[in-house]
Design the sequence.
């Protein structure tokens, strides 16, 4: 059955400018462009990834939205009609990549930060120390000291393992398989150089990245891919992945075509087999089971590394987080509604979960109410677009944030949402060697380092404007946030006042 | 009630004096010192804390209370009688002073805890959840804290301004020297005085909002604004402290109560939590010290007081001066024989001690601790 669905984009080639160098044809990962006596486009294949346009030396390519008009209908939007047509043709679930792109309300965009004027001075980060250093891990409620007769004071409390990051940002979990080895290399190098953490996702850790282990979070997910004792110990943090924001309650599926020799060795599965992650961990059907796995991982790593538990932000996230803290986790990683993915059923991605802003507020409140906030660090992810979002997430109560989509954009991603096809023209979400080669890990690492540096500088400016010189004075300081255009209930849940009050 | 009061940022003058030998001095000395810094306040608040003033009731909790109506006094006294043995109740003596208008009713009570009482009532187990540190009758003091919090929170028009033993706070709306004469402080003798002149940038002109802020034996006079107030407050709420006052200074008193009294951190360490050393300095320390300071910042980051401040915290055995970590507010210290002085300006020290043995500006983040001699 040939598809009757109109193309989403139209590729316009200015033949007066085109020199017929065919660079665009070579660069398109989706097979949209071909050369006959001139470059021609199969518009239906275009994903608007911009690779051709970015590399056309003549600037002869523009990509336009197909303006083919559907009869206006404010309820049956063209998107829904096209999706039905697509499913009528295929009989399958619709897939997508990246995070939820629907116009749900953004709380980040309705919160504003404070600044100092007169009564307390703002601080200039160019002149004064400004501290972003953050430690992830479980902290005791209090410290004990011993004072010797000569007055010397000695700390007697033995601290649980803490992982130091130089800025309250880490990279989010993205597996080797979903993204390329060069993307993993870029992330690992940047994490190492910037003094933060990268997260393997659930696909294991390639041996080439073992030297960066001091800056790596290794994931142990429901498929247990690539998990063995060596892997667990090549890390700063071990993370149990229960769920992710883009597909709460759903497992994963890496198609066999992407499982080449290297992926197979890293995931510890045969070449060419599908890698299926079950929806739940089949050894975790309850909170006490989770506790067993947390302690199994602590045993396997000699209690030297914090154990993180990653969950999707769902309705009951506060109670679940309290359970996770009490089950022995050192870090809770919350992934919100906007969290990204390499592949997810569209219907799941777009309709399940809650916004990360609400999740941070609810979890932080709950842990404080129970007096156990010190026991865990909270990492928030899912829709952190700039350092303003970082500051707001921290003010709501997160210890640090994780970047997935933002990191990929730094590597070249244009958020075309076709990660699941394996055709990424930018060499990020693909295993095709000719495409992977396009991503230079040195350049990738540099771009990521630049991003982290830029955001860190901005965070320092924000802290300075707030008149504080350490990030812990912003953490959970909701007094420094005001809501605009939020309902009373929203304000209450976020724990902030409206602007003007 | 929580969150109903906006906080008031404020500038200010502070001055304090302690005799480390426990020698008692009349209040005119501290009035003279704070009066010199008249221009640092704007007439919207002044106050004093005095230690050693009630030797005849030294084992009683002395509650200084202000009331805005007879009903609030009736309700408070009823509540106090339920929870304590009230050995004396009387108005706080005052004299008319031109600058002081419309004072509330001012009362003081000398109270003893009822034996066995804390277990039976008052704070719920949830409130007490995190408050049972230490051995020295922690229950009794935690119980007093919960009574203070409860009255200040739930009885409209009643406000306990101090609740320690053998000490008291005297404060109100006006210039500090006027407040001092109003309360007849020249008739009290104390071995430790602190004082405060307030320059709030917005104010409801509320007597309870003046400094010092007191809880149990703690008193705080503070010049500055706490930019980290939001998180300090939420941190304290985890330990059942309720920040209800219209200023940010109370968090300093509560943090000292939490860290020093309940969690038993040494004084020096408590100060290092509130004005933590920078990572760049911690990184240069010797291993053991580095581990200690790293742990302090890891565990007590939410108790870091950030923003411009100089404050004098006192309790029955010590007076502590502390500046913020980049010294955005002034603080001068002086020593003469057994007397230790701390003030916003050197002039305020020289006014009452023209020739100190030593006088110096306190360094950023470095606590100045003056303690009573052992055995006193």
Sequence:
């Amino acid at each position: 059955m040939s598809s009757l669905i109109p193309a989403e984009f139209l590729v316009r080639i200015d033949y007066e400018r085109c020199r017929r160098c065919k660079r665009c044809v070579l660069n398109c990962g989706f097979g949209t462009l071909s050369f006959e006596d001139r470059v021609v486009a199969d518009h239906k294949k275009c994903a608007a990834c911009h690779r051709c346009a970015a590399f056309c030396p003549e600037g002869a390519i523009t990509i336009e939205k197909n303006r083919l008009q559907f009869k206006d209908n404010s309820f049956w939007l063209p998107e829904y009609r096209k999706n039905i047509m697509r499913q009528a043709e295929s009989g399958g679930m619709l897939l997508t990549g990246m995070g939820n792109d629907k116009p749900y309300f953004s709380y980040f965009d309705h919160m504003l930060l404070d600044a100092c004027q007169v009564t307390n001075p703002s601080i200039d980060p160019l002149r004064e120390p400004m501290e972003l250093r953050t430690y992830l891990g479980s902290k005791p409620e209090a410290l004990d000291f011993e004072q010797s007769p000569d007055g010397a004071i000695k700390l007697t409390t033995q601290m649980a393992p803490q992982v130091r990051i130089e800025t309250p940002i880490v990279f989010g979990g993205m597996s080797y398989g979903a993204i390329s080895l060069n993307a993993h290399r870029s992330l690992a190098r940047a994490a190492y150089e910037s003094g933060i953490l990268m997260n393997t996702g659930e696909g294991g850790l390639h041996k080439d990245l073992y030297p960066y282990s001091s800056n790596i979070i290794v994931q142990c997910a429901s498929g247990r891919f690539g998990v063995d004792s060596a892997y667990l110990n090549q890390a700063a943090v071990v993370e149990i992945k229960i769920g992710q924001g883009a597909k709460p309650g759903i497992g994963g599926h890496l198609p066999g075509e992407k499982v080449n020799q290297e992926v197979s060795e890293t995931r510890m599965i045969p070449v060419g087999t599908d890698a299926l992650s079950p929806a739940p961990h089949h050894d975790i059907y309850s909170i006490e089971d989770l506790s067993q796995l947390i302690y199994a991982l602590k045993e396997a790593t000699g209690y030297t590394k914090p154990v993180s538990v990653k969950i999707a932000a769902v309705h009951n996230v506060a109670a679940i987080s309290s359970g996770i803290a009490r089950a022995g986790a050192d870090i809770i990683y919350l992934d919100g509604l906007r969290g990204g993915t390499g592949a997810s059923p569209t219907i799941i991605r777009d309709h399940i979960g809650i916004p990360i802003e609400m999740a941070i507020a609810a979890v932080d409140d709950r842990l404080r109410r129970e007096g156990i906030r010190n026991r865990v660090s909270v990492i928030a992810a899912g829709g952190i677009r700039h350092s303003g979002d970082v500051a707001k997430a921290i003010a709501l109560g997160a210890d640090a944030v994780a970047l997935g989509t933002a990191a990929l954009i730094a590597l070249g991603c244009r958020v075309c949402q076709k990660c699941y096809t394996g055709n990424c023209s930018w060499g990020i979400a693909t295993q095709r060697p000719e495409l992977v080669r396009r991503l230079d890990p040195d350049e990738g690492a540099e771009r990521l380092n630049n991003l982290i540096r830029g955001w860190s500088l901005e965070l320092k400016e924000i802290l300075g404007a707030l008149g504080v010189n350490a990030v812990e004075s912003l953490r959970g300081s909701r007094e420094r946030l005001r809501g605009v255009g939020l309902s009373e209930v929203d304000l209450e849940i976020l724990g902030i006042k409206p602007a003007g009050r | 009630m929580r969150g109903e009061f906006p906080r008031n940022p404020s500038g200010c003058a502070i001055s304090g004096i302690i005799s480390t030998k426990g020698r008692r001095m009349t209040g005119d000395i501290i009035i003279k010192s704070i009066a010199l810094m008249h221009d640092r306040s704007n007439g919207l608040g002044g106050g004093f804390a005095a230690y050693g003033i009630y030797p005849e009731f030294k084992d009683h909790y002395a509650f200084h209370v202000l009331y805005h109506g007879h009903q609030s006094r009736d309700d408070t006294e009823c509540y106090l009688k339920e929870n304590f043995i009230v050995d004396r109740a009387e108005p706080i003596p005052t004299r008319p002073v031109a600058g002081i208008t419309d004072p509330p009713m001012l009362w003081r009570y000398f109270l003893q805890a009822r034996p066995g009482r804390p277990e039976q009532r008052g704070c719920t187990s949830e409130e007490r959840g995190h408050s049972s540190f230490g051995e020295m009758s922690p229950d009794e003091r935690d119980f007093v804290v919960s009574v203070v919090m409860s009255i200040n929170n739930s009885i409209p028009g009643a406000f306990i301004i101090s609740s320690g033993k053998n000490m008291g706070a005297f404060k109100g709306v006006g210039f500090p020297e006027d407040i001092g004469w109003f309360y007849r402080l020249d008739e009290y003798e104390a071995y430790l005085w602190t004082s405060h002149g307030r320059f709030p940038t917005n104010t409801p002109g509320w007597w309870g909002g003046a400094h010092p802020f007191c809880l149990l034996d703690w008193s705080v006079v503070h010049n500055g604004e706490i930019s980290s107030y939001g998180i300090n407050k939420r941190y304290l709420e985890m330990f059942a402290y309720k920040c209800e006052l219209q200023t940010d200074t109370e968090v300093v008193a509560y943090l000292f109560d939490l860290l020093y009294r309940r969690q038993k951190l040494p004084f020096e360490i408590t100060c290092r939590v509130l004005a933590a050393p920078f990572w760049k300095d911690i990184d240069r320390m010797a291993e053991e010290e580095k581990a200690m300071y790293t742990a302090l910042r890891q565990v007590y980051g939410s108790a870091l007081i950030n923003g411009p401040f100089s404050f004098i915290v006192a309790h029955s055995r010590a007076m502590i001066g502390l500046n913020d970590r980049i010294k955005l507010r002034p603080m001068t210290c002086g020593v003469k024989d057994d007397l230790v002085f701390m003030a916003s300006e050197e002039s305020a020290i020289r006014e009452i001690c023209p020739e100190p043995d030593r006088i110096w500006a306190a360094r950023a983040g470095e606590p100045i601790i003056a303690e009573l001699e052992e055995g006193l």
Remarks:
- Chain A has a mean pLDDT of 96.
- Chain A touches chain B through 47 residues (CB under 8 Å).
- DSSP finds 15 helices and 23 strands in chain A.
